């Protein structure tokens, strides 16, 4: 039996083949779990909300949602979602394939996330963020959206492909973190950054091209673009493209 | 049936009319839920503690506590409390009307919070904080209380009416954030701030009157005091007073 | 009956005398709870993981794990562990006696923690941290480990005996926080610090000996080393040693 006898699963929920649901988890009617999903214990999926416009929560095939997580209705995830524990995702979060998000992270909804994005623990994403592909965010990163809180003005943050935001950094409203940038730990960033450039500090300053940083593995190679040396968990087809790129 | 058959509710708890209690929630004896409260799943309310002096947890009428939250006995909330998920509130937290507190926020108890206060996600409030009315705090704000940790000296933080503390800011022990101040994101603040003034940086510096900040809505109005333009969710009687104020 | 009728406890788990297990808690086979442990509600203990090498989770006698916490198999805790709510501990975390860790803190596993360590709420400990005895960390401290993320290079942080790290500080990869140091709030620290010295800022700067800080209790004594005046909760035999130390 794959669905725990201690789970509460609505008869109207659409549950794929080989789906596992842990004890004490609640799955509401407005949920679609595609084949081979694993849902941990104490999760609540498909919480209704007047902002969801009655749309389903869709979890792509082969996803794994760990315990104590909360997902609202009206969000969609491609295949291969992997979460830590106690993740929160509000309505209208539209996510591509192979998204990874760590324990205690919190997505406020009404935002867009590309493919192969990896977000660590305790990351907070305000509404109207627009996140590209292959982006990384480390613990306690916050994406904001209100330039003079509280107000009715919303300026979401953009994070482009391959950008990396290190721990405890705040991305200020309307900022654009350009492709391949590295934001150092404990920084505050506003405005539009230059591609493949390091920024750090509060307020953040430009510190030169990311290629200046050398890998501390004894090889003397550049640490960025990281896709030249870090391939763990990406599809082979993607890694093959990266290995054949010219710089 | 408003009380889930999967909830554990003490026969001694005082449960008002039309109260909804979600599955797997535990409500201990020392709890008073007033009329029309909604309590989500997996909450535990009324945890006993030797510091609570055996006083009840009182949740005012029309409150909504979301899932996975934990409240100790010995705290009192006025009507209209709204919480996110996984909120923690320790004993002897005395709160006014219409308090809003976001997902993962954590109140350490032994503190006082006024009316219409709005705290976002992941805010941490140390003991002996004294928070006025209409205060705002954004994600990952921390109020501290020990000037030379660890010690037995406690210097709680004061936050006065209408003050706003932006994301990831630390308010140092004994600081007084005066009425109408704006604390910028990612700042550290000590001492007593001047009323209606902007402070930012770590250590925080005075950056001029809050009225210098203009609303990014094309009107050219000042963004502060925010009550001149931001009214969402406040009672009409309060908004009427604000609209008739002279500056 | 000490084990709640609503808990799910594997018959293979090793449960000591007088152990209390709260409602809806799950205890897997690979768990050893020694005598007199108290486990709150909604916890999941002994989650399996291919990195655990099939080793047990061992919780020492007289421990208290609060609600909604998650512990993986393959970690070991000495007697007297006390946790807040919603703590997460991954595999291969090796901890001494009397460890205290606050609500929402998160240990990524593969790390070592000494005796009498006290970690407050929302502390994040990356893999390969090496933490001594009598260490303190305050809310939202992050220990990191990757010098150029993402990469396969891991440089864990070392925190030596009696060191204190104040709120919202980031300890950068490979840093060594030496014995008796005080890291001020909202700081970023790299490299090796000098013993019994204050560092603060981002990037952190040396601010002089910790003995310069005077206790704000009217006595004029130095606030550091803190063990000269702060004894709450430590064993009398330890306090006796501290009181007889010469400085």
Question: How would you sum up this structure, described in words?
Answer:
- Three copies of one chain form a homotrimer.
- The first copy, chain A, is mainly beta.
- Chain A has one helix and 30 strands.
- In chain A, strand 29 (197-200) and strand 30 form a beta hairpin.
- The model of chain A has no long low-confidence stretch (mean pLDDT 97).
Number of DSSP helices of chain A?
1
> What is the average of the pLDDT values of chain A?
97
How big a fraction of the residues of chain A is strand?
Answer: 25-35%
* Overall spatial form of chain A: globular
**Which class of secondary structure composition applies to the elements of chain A?**
mainly beta
Domain module tally of chain A: 2
What pair of chains forms the biggest interface?
A-B, 29 and 38 residues
Name of the CATH homologous superfamily of the largest domain in chain A? Hexapeptide repeat proteins
**Oligomer kind:** homotrimer
Low-confidence stretches of chain A: none
What do we call the CATH topology of the largest domain in chain A? UDP N-Acetylglucosamine Acyltransferase, domain 1
Highest CATH level, the class of the largest domain in chain A:
Mainly Beta
Q: State the CATH architecture of the largest domain in chain A.
A: 3 Solenoid
Measure the end-to-end span of chain A. 52 Å
Q: How many beta-strand runs of chain A?
A: 30
Strand line-up across the major sheet of chain A: 1-4-7-10-13-16-19-22-25-28
């Amino acid at each position: 039996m794959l669905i725990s006898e201690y789970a509460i699963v609505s008869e109207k929920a659409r549950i794929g083949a080989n789906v596992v649901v842990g004890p004490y988890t609640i799955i509401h009617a407005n949920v679609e779990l595609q084949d081979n999903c694993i849902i941990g214990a104490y999760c609540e999926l498909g919480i209704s909300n007047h902002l969801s416009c009655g749309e389903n929560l869709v979890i792509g095939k082969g996803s794994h949602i760990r315990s104590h997580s909360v997902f609202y209705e009206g969000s969609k995830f491609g295949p291969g979602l992997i979460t830590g524990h106690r993740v929160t995702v509000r309505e209208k979060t539209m996510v591509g394939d192979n998204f990874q998000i760590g324990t205690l992270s919190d997505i406020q909804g009404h935002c867009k996330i590309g493919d192969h994005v990896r977000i660590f623990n305790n990351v907070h994403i305000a509404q109207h963020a627009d996140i590209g592909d292959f982006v990384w965010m480390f613990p306690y990163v916050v994406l904001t959206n209100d330039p003079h809180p509280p107000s009715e003005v919303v300026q979401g943050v953009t994070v482009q492909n391959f950008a990396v935001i290190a721990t405890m950094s705040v991305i200020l409203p309307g900022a654009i973190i350009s492709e391949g940038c590295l934001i150092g730990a404990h920084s505050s960033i506003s405005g539009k950054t230059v591609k493949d450039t390091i920024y750090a500090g509060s307020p953040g300053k430009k510190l030169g091209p990311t290629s200046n940083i050398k890998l501390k593995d004894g090889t003397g190679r550049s640490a960025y673009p990281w896709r030249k040396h870090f391939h763990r968990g990406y599809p082979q087809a993607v890694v093959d493209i990266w290995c054949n790129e010219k710089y």
